[in-house]
Amino acid sequence: MAGENRMIIKRAWRFLALLMVPLLITAGYGFSVEGAASIGYNGKGSAVLTFESELTAEEFEDELQEKLKGFNIVSGDDDMLVAKSVEPTETGYEVSVAFRRLDKIKLNGDFYLEPWSEFVTEGSESLELLEKLNRGNLSCTVSAHFDGVLGQITIPRTTADGISPKDVSGAAIPLETFEQQGREAASDTKLLLFRLFGLEGVTRAQVTVPGRIRAYGGNVTVLSENTFEVVPGEVNATVLRNKLVVDENGTEKFEAEVTNEAVSMLVGYIVFDQDVDPAVYWLIGIA
């Protein structure tokens, strides 16, 4: 039974790490979008996205469905992300989105989600990443999604503002102190770190986690004990896009295009005390 409990919790961690997925459906289509996402312990979730757009209802629907189709193709199924409703507003549209099997959805970046104590283990790659971000080094290469086709975004070694830890009041925490606090933390205190790039059109992201936030790093604003907001920044990158072209014989093929350009980014982390899954309570009750 203990093994089942751990498996349920492990699934919850993996799904939680992808809370911001619905906001990515808008990247690259000239929209301005704000939104909020939430997720249950079963891994299914929903989001409400508010778009500023001058497109007609038909044009907007076509663009939205095309983007959803691309994510679903890359992710390997046709209903990973589904628009449940599209309603007009004074400045654009409000879209309700449902999502599932989030561990299979392909994103423009990556997530790390581990117990805080494990994340700051001496000599670990995760601690090395935390220290690297603290120095302002954002260099990495991540898979990216462009019109249903996988590509790549490379952030060169560069000096940016350091992503350093703070408590919920906004007071700075020395990294050494933060690491020591993590090593002493209980196993149900988690650190979620996210690096997402090329999210053009996303103006902010609000995420609700199943627990109480106690620390954060990056361009994060804590809105309540379990909700935070991230506002995108910008960084120079080398972008590889694989575009479908038609040659002189009328044959379709993919052609690589490499550009150097500024891309948007959401980079940061939060530490939170995880609530217990109701299913775990139930399992404990019958053990």
How would you describe this structure to a colleague?
The structure is a single chain. The protein is α+β, with helices and mostly antiparallel strands and 287 residues long. The protein has one domain. Helices cover 23% and strands 44% of the residues. The strands form two sheets. Strands 5, 6, 7, 8, 9, 11, 14 and 15 form an eight-stranded antiparallel sheet that branches. A seven-stranded mixed sheet has the order 3-4-2-1-10-13-12, with helices on one face. Helix 1 runs antiparallel to helix 6. The protein is globular and about 65 Å long. The N terminus and C terminus are likely disordered.
Structure described in brief:
The chain is an alpha+beta fold and 287 residues long. 23% of the residues lie in helices and 44% in strands. The protein is globular.
Bulk shape: globular
**N/C terminus separation:** 7 Å
The radius of gyration is: 20 Å
Q: How would you state the average pLDDT, rounded?
A: 77
Element-by-element helix/strand order: HEEHEEEHHEEEHEEEEEEEH
